[in-house]
TrEMBL record:
NCBIfam families: PhnH_redo
Lineage per the UniProt record: Bacteria, Bacillati, Bacillota, Clostridia, Eubacteriales
GO molecular function annotations of the record: lyase activity
Stored InterPro entries: PhnH-like_sp, Phosphonate_metab_PhnH
Organism name: Formimonas warabiya
Keyword Lyase attributed: yes
Annotated keywords: Lyase
UniProt-recorded name of the protein: Phosphonate C-P lyase system protein PhnH
Length: 183
């Protein structure tokens, strides 16, 4: 979270976990790192019930409705619109405890540093570029959810190649606009 826009690769670590969990290996590593008996989670996936049961068995974390979950996982098998539903439901914290906000972990087909979205804010020297292959209007929903600082949700994206990208609530995201030449 301290280096927004930096795409890191944890494939070496993910390849050491030999377990089929219905998610990308990098996502499984995130589950194992973040979840324990003290936190709650929600899963959006085609087989959400089975996946939640496995996560509970591995981490002892319990499920909760998305509105109260500490961590929300939107897996690659999720239905269209699940990412938007998760963003709308996610708890943004409150003024006394903004750090209690949800973190949403999202599986995406690909993460690259192509110039699709421009990232600015704390932890980014000038600006950073990313391309996140997802559907829907997640950027607008995230901006709305994070509109009243210090409230907001944080996002972690994972892809099948073991890449992860963290976007804390303080990171601003704008669409890269192709410039035009005046002649």
């Amino acid at each position: 979270m301290s280096r927004p826009g930096l795409i890191s690769n944890i494939r070496k670590q993910a390849d050491q976990v030999d377990l089929e969990a219905g998610c990308f290996p990098a996502t499984l590593i995130m589950m194992l790192m973040l979840l324990d008996t003290e936190v709650t989670f929600q899963v959006y996936a085609g087989d959400a019930g089975e996946t939640a049961k496995l996560i509970n068995q591995l981490t002892y974390a319990t499920t909760a409705p998305a509105e109260r979950a500490d961590f929300i996982f939107v897996l690659h098998t999720a239905q269209g619109g699940d990412l938007e539903q998760a963003l709308k439901a996610a708890y943004p914290g409150d003024l006394l405890d903004p750090h209690q906000a949800a973190t949403i972990i999202i599986e995406t087909p690909s993460l690259t540093n192509e110039q699709d979205w421009i990232l600015t804010g704390p932890g980014i020297e000038k600006e950073s570029y990313v391309k996140v292959e997802t559907k829907g209007n997640w950027v607008q929903l995230r901006a709305k959810k994070n509109g009243e600082y210090p409230l907001g949700v944080e996002l972690i994206f994972t892809d099948p190649r073991g890449n992860i990208l963290c976007l804390p609530r303080t990171t601003r995201i704008t669409k890269k606009v192709v410039g035009s030449w005046d002649m």
